[in-house]
Every structure is written in structure tokens, then in C-alpha cells.
Amino acid sequence: MSESPRSAPASPYKGLANYTEDDAAFFFGRDREREVIIANLKARRLTLVYGESGVGKSSLLRAGVASRLLEAAEEDVEELGAPEFIPIVFSAWRDDALTGLADEIRATVEEFTGEPIRLPGSRRLDEAIGAAAEAAGAYLLIILDQFEEYFLYHPSEEGAGTFAGEFPRAVNVPGLQAGFLASIREDALAKLDRFKRDIPKLFDTYLRVRHLDAAAAHQAILRPVERYNALVGPERQVTVEPALVYAVLDQVRTGQVVLEQAGRGTLEPADAPAGGGDRIETPYLQLVMARLWAEERSRGSRELRLATLDDLGGAQEIVRTHLDAALGSLSRVERFLAADLFHHLVTPSGTKIAHAAADLAEYVRRPEAEVAALLALLARPDIRIVRPVAPPPDDPGPPRFEIFHDVLAPSVLDWRSRQTAERRAAEQRRAARAATRRRLFRMAALFGAVAFAAVVSLAVLANSQRNEAESQRTEARNQAARASRLADFARVQEARARESAEEAGDQESKARGLAIEARNLTRKVLVRARQLAAEEARARRLAGEASRQAARAAALAAEARRQAALSAELAAFDVSTVYRFDRVRGGARTTQFTVNAPRGALITASCRPARCRPFRHRVRGAAARDVPITTVVGRRLLTGTRVHVLVVRPNIAKRYVFVVRRAGVNLVVRERCRPPGSEAPAAQVPARCP
Questions:
Q1: Distance between CA atoms of residues 508 and 481, nearest Å
Q2: Angular region, 350: left φ>0, alpha ψ -120 to 50, beta rest
Q3: Hey, what's the torsion of the CAs at 551, 553, 558, 560, to 10 degrees?
Q4: What is the rounded distance in angstroms from the CA atom of residue 143 to the CA atom of residue 86?
Q5: Distance between CA atoms of residues 41 and 205, nearest Å
Q6: Residue 177: partners with Cβ closer than 8 Å, 6 or more residues away
Q7: Helix H or strand E encompassing 625
Q8: How far is Cα 231 from Cα 6, in angstroms, rounded to an integer?
Q9: How many CA atoms lie within 13 A of 22 on its CB side?
Q10: Which of 91, 479, 622, 627 has an alpha carbon 20 to 30 Å from 291's alpha carbon atom?
Q11: CA distance to 142, 252, 292, 376, 377, per residue, from 384 (Å)
Q12: Whole-Å CA distances, 12 to 219, 227, 292, 303
């Protein structure tokens, strides 16, 4: 259940963590997307929501959509005793998806019923949903988040009794009291073709979630701080420097933050409008603001300032060095092991995969205890590079680990490539030192052999001349002196060998210095290349401004035509109504109403507080007269029951409220209103349809 926080959190920004239902009080900037998704989820059997990785789909669905639906369900329970709609969010795809979804449905519905419910023992998803909806007396809104992970973990699943077989069956069952929403990454949309044959209307309703525009991002920066200040005393309240807001928005605009080893998120899609450069990279915005908040608090400051952003190197440097800062405390051995683990946790295309510590230890051929200790370190709250994923209820195995957020994948690939290069350079240095030592050992052995041979020769010569006359003693002394000189020569050669070894060490130090200079030069070249790319992007934006001006003129002309068509529709929409009641059909008295509706209108009816069968009818062809609305089959409605009838066209609707009296039915409200998503001006149609 979603509630406003009773105490202020440590930070109003989430960084790379997803917003959940508990964070709804600090979630801003997605009001329009939230209302559109809720309207489609209630009105359509299946809605597809897609967007780039890191655009904030999970946060929107949990902190925006699910939180708002939970609030409405709680209000229904307080006023009517039962909810009209119950939202259910599911994203645990690694294990048996069908069992996991059924367990999530049962657990969520039991929170509202207050008592255990029993689902059918078969593996039929439609039967489980029907039983849960009947137990709660509500319409279930099932949100399937991170749907691309289903295709990753179950690439060849098919047949009855599996999610691949039961999900299409549930979507196609008529009258099932449930609506479905599947959220998927944009680069995985093609994988949905797997369901296209079994779900004919798979792509009938789809919504794209884009990065925040400048106005929404402005709210996402300031409104969380305002909510934080409302929860703390005056002495702890925080202000935001206006110049900082505009600087951050400018620096995290799409295309401004570029990682060396990954291009994802740096280009607009081919079908993006010309103004795509005004969009804000949502995850980078949160990462930068969370870093600024932590830095200001550590300095004892109560204001978020532009100077602090400059001290940290700007948004580009904060994003690029996030992993370096988080992993800076690791030893060299731990960094190399982390690079090996990332090889199995992130695919080359940037997709995260979950593995248990034992599996990772086998992959990298290191002790499991060492791997588990490093994973626990990387999952600490102050690092948050990986996170543990709990096993399913029917599998008491150890937890698995995965990358904390999709947006970290490019940074992980970049960091791993740099660690691999560092490891390769270290191995080359070790090989060079080993070769130098081997050369020194060979030289020392050669000089020692020469000296030993000289000494042996002199000893043999002295022994052979021991019996010579005294006249040969002088020669013997000369030979001894020659041997001494040879020994001195050997010592000199040994000293020269030591000097050669020291010179080799100096050469190695110079080589390391040259390597450092080469890296610095490479970094400068890359910085200059990024600057040139930014200048080129500015030139392209200036060149595109002229085409955008022409597009704006065409858009204004189209808007004028659309307003004329809207005015014609507002003038033509005149719904009259006729109602009858207490008709006898098949021997039973049934309360009925009839309405006249224009062509293309959607007629819906519901009643409170008594339950009645929901009614939906689309008027096809010409305008319809006396469309019958049967609210209850087999019995009359109780006195005091309110029947709500809504006749909807795209831009305008008419709303009727009937009250059942003792002697008949009275029409108490008849008014025009705007349906959700209508473009009708408020001045012409002031009310919103309930």
C-alpha cells in the first residue's frame, strides 16, 4: 500500500536506483505519461509500453502508475468496502514466470481481501486470474515490467503450462476481469514477434516512454527538495541555486554525456522529432543530483550550488567516474577479479544477466568464498554496483547477483576494458623483468666459468713446475701475478654485469614513464575529439533550426485544421437519451435504460453501491437509437442505486447519472465532459469525465 513518508529520507534523489511505490512522494515529472498509461490499462485488454534502456519505465510504472492505482483502490475500500481495480506488478523473470506471476497475484489480492484465497491447481493463467478477480470482486490490472528479461532467461519456452502458452490464452479469453500491460526495452521490441501469431491484436495499443523534457526535468530537480523540506524543520531545509538547475539540464541533455566504450544513449532514434536534443537523460540526471546532494551534505552546506558541480568536473565527469569512485577502494587483485566477474554479468551488447556466486566462481576459476566476498562488497549501499536477487519461493537455493541498473552496463564495459588493458600491461612488465633476470644470470654464469678455468689452469701449471730449479721461481711468480690480473678482470666484468642490471632497471622505469605520457596524450586526444564532436553537434542543431521553423509553420497550419475539425465535432455532438425500466424478459423483471448515440461512440455503464455487470458497446456504422443497457440480469436494482452511463467520442462525451426510485428512475445529471486524453479546450467543455 502506498503512503506518504512520515520521515524525511537521507536524500530526495534515488541515483541509479528505481523508484518504487514507497518513493511515490518524491516522484515527479511524469504526470501526463501516468494518466495516459492508467487510462489505456483500464480500457484495453493489452497495452505495450516501450522505451530506451534507462529512460525510467520501471520507476514510472511503480512510483507513478501502481502507486496511484493503489491509492484509488484504498479509497474504494474505505467508501464501498471493496476495490474496483487492483494493480499487480511483476518483474521476476529468471525462474518459472508462470508460477511467479500466480504467486504475485495471490499475494496482492490477499492484501485487499484480508484472508487467504485459493487458486486452481492447474497451470492455467486465465483460471488463476479469474479466481483471484472473483475473490476480490475487482478488475485486475497486471503490469509485466522488464519484459525483455523473459526472452533472455526463457529463449525457447513454448507449449501449454508455460508462460509462452498461457499468457496469449489469458489475453484472448473474452470477459476475463483483467487488463495487461507489458513494459519492454526498445531494442527488444522485435522479440515480441514470438507472440504475434497467438495474440492478433498484440500491437494495437502501444505507448513510447521518452526521456524527460526540460520542463518535466525541472520538476524532477526542484519538487523532491520541496517535499523534503516539508518533512524537516527549518534548520534542516535545503535550497537549490537556480543557476545549478539550468547547468545540470544543459549538461545531461541527450547526446551530451558520452562514454568511450559505449554509444548507447548518445543518438536519437531515426524516427525522433527534430527537438530530441531538448530531452534529458533521466538516469544521468538522478545520478548527478544524488552526487551533488551527498557532496553538499558532506561539506555541511544547505544549498545545492553550481560551484560544487564545477568542483566535481561537471555531469560528464560524475557519470564517467562513477564506477572508478565506487571501486577505488579495491585492491589490484580485487579489481582484476571484478573485471572477470563483469565479463559474465554483462553481455557485450549491454544486457545484464544474473548468476549465483558458485556459478561465477566456476566461470572465473577462483574460490567461491573469494568471489562471494567480493560480490557482497560490490552490493554494499555505498557502492551499489551489483545487487542480490532473491531465489523463487520453491527454490531454497542461494541468491543470485546482477548489475544494479541497466544504465551501468556501458560504464561497466568501459571500466572492464580499461582494467583488461592495465592487466595486459602489467603482464608485459613482468615478462620484461623476467627476461632481464635471465640475461643477467647467463652473463654471471659465463664470467664465473671463465674465472674458474683460469684458476684451474694456473694451479696445474704451478704443480708441473714445482720440481724446477730456482731459476724458474721468477716465472712462477709472474704466472701468479697473471692469474691475479685475470681474477681482477673477472671482478671487473662482474661489476659491469651489475651495472648492466641497474641500467636495465632504469630503462624499465623510463618505459613506465613513456607509457604514462602515452596514456595522458591519448586522454587529451579523446577530450579534444569529444569537444570537436560537441562543436559538430552544435553546428547540426543550428542547421536544423531552419528546418524546424518550417516544420513549426506546417504544424500551426495543421493545428488550425485540427481545431476546425474539433469545433465541428463539438457542435455536432448532441446525445439525446430515452430510458425505460422494469421490462419483462424471459419471465424476469430487469431494469434497463436506452440511449441514442452518434456514430463511433463508446457507451459504458456501471453502478454503485450495488454491483452490476459492466456494460461496453461501440456504435458501428450510422448513429444508433435506443441502444439497450441492461445493468442487472435476473433481478431489479435496489432503490438508491446510482447508474453511471458515459457516451464517449475522441474529444467529447456525455455523462448521465440515473437514480433508481420506488416508482421508477430519475435522471439527475446530464452534462458534457472531456474524456481522458481529449484535446477539447477547457473553455468549451469545462468538465473532465469521471
A1: 41
A2: left
A3: 160
A4: 11
A5: 10
A6: 129, 130, 133, 134, 138, 139, 140
A7: strand 624-630
A8: 8
A9: 7
A10: 91
A11: 29, 22, 17, 10, 9
A12: 13, 8, 12, 14
CA of 667: how far to CAs of 174, 222, 664, in Å?
32, 47, 10
Nearest to 689 by CA among 654, 637, 641: 654
H or E segment to which residue 37 belongs:
helix 31-43
**Distance from C-alpha of 400 to C-alpha of 407, rounded to nearest angstrom:** 19
- pLDDT for 134 equals 92
pLDDT tens-digit readout, 614-634: 788 888 766 666 677 765 444
DSSP code string of 216-258: HHHHHHHHHHHHHHHHS-GGG--EE-HHHHHHHHHHTBTTTS-
Main-chain dihedrals φ then ψ at residue 594, nearest 5 degrees: -135, 145
Which residue has cell 437509437? 625
The tens digit of pLDDT for each residue in 187-204 reads 889 899 999 999 998 999
Neighbouring C-alpha atoms within 13 Å toward the C-beta of 272: 18
- Distance between CA atoms of residues 671 and 679, nearest Å: 18
Position 583: which residue type?
R
Cell reading at 510: 623510463
- Count Cβ atoms below 10 Å from residue 82 Cβ, excluding itself: 16
* Cβ count near 221 (within 10 Å): 25
> The C-alpha cell of 211 is what?
526521456
Provide the grid cell at 455.
684458476
What residue has cell string 564517467?
320
Alpha carbon distance 203, 183 (integer Å)? 13
CB 189 within 8 A of CB 50: yes
Nearest to 505, CA basis, from 423, 425, 440, 422:
440
Stated pTM of the model: 0.54
Q: For residue 644, what is its C-alpha cell?
A: 453511471
